[in-house]
Amino acid sequence: MNARAEKPRENLPVPAPAPVTQPALRRSLPAAIAEFQSDAVELEERAPPRVARMTLYGITALIAAAIVWASVSSIDEVVVAPGKLITTQPTIVVQPLETSIIRTINVTAGEIVQKGQVLATLDATFSQSDVDQQRAKFGALDAQVKRLEAELAGADYTQTAGGSRDELLQMQLFGQRRAYYMAQLQNYDQQIAAQAATITSSRNQEAVLANRRDTLSQIEGARERLYNRESGSLITLLGSRDARLDVETSLSAVQGRADEAEHTFAKLKADRQAFIEDFRRAAMEQLVDLRSQRDTAAQELKKMELRRDMVALTAPADAVVLDLAARSVGSVVREAEPIVTLVPLNVPLEAEVSVNTRDIGRITNGKEARIKFDAYPFQKFGTASGTVRTVSRDAFTPSQQEAATQTAAPYFKALIPLADPRLKGSDEPVRLLPGMTVSAEIMVGHRTVISYFLYPILRGLDTAIREP
């Protein structure tokens, strides 16, 4: 019965099964074969999704664009060098001129001092004693010089108001020498006057005797004529002749005395002038010698006054006290021992940085730099700019103190003056002081991004496969 019942159903038309949609395959397979493949084969033969293909293409394009960008774009090459701020002028070291004792210390480290301010004072006993002694010597020499100048000028030498004992002594000596000088001249004048009177008297006697001689000659001539005519006696003639000869003898004696008096007169005048010249010559020679001694004493006095004034150690310029010697009041300091070290203010600042030896080849004068200060974070206060002014020609080896804070490798020094003492990016006033630690970023060039990936590879290839 069931068989019969099912038989008519077999005769009914059977609807065709719905077509099954097969995913696209990468290879052309007959549908009949693809229908009987396993799931793994079906997945293997299935074409990738469009999203996956687009993702792959996007990543590939992104990598290609990154390579192109890295090959074309460049970034700044920067050499970082640590250092500190220094002044363009060296630090000022205040030292004593000679060994002395400290009396006062008037400043402390970090204090700002003004030009001329007293930093410390030393004992002035010895220097003041030397100044007083030299001043007395100079005063004595100066008084002698002025006295001689007055003698040579013929002027009076007077003691100045509040004059010293030396001036009083020189004034007394001036009076004695002038009295001696005038007495000598008066003596010569009297002798000259006496000789002049003798000359006048002799010339008068000479004139009288000459007249008598002429008269006696006439008398003798008349008596000789009478004797020749035998009108007169021989005795009378001889008497007249004897009288004439006697007068001529007296005349010759008077003429001799007159000539001698004239010579004596001339000699006395010459002696008087010689005395004057000798007196002035001796005074002039003494004046020249004393002037030289006075000038020397004046220079010595200046040095001693400077030495005395330097017992007060003063600041030569506006500065900050950087360091004080480990000395107290009453301590003895040696000659030229540093007492106070000052850093001048109001002078341009520059950064002294240490450049590693491996970077020095790329740093030259004129390279721009950006300076960061450890005391002022650049994120808040900004940075300063500058240009490399000079680079040392040789490397420096760190000292023991420097080696404790940095590597012991040699380094080069570079000086970078600050273009502007104000920090860029900060409205707050900042104070830049010598000694502040800084970090200088020196711009040495440009470099493509891809070189950062290629250079290590090239360096590795250059040094690889070289082992023996």
From TrEMBL:
Residue ranges annotated for the AprE-like beta-barrel domain, each copy included: 350-444
Keywords for the protein's UniProt record, in alphabetical order: Cell inner membrane, Cell membrane, Coiled coil, Membrane, Transmembrane, Transmembrane helix, Transport
Keyword Nuclease: no
Keyword RNA-binding part of the UniProt annotation: no
Primary site of residence: membrane
Gene3D superfamilies (UniProt xref): 2.40.30.170
Residues annotated as transmembrane: 54-72
One annotated Gene Ontology cellular component of this protein: plasma membrane
Coiled-coil spans in chain: 251-307
Compartmental location: Cell inner membrane
PANTHER family membership: MEMBRANE FUSION SUBUNIT OF EMRAB-TOLC MULTIDRUG EFFLUX PUMP, TRANSPORT PROTEIN COMB
Designated name of the protein: Membrane fusion protein (MFP) family protein
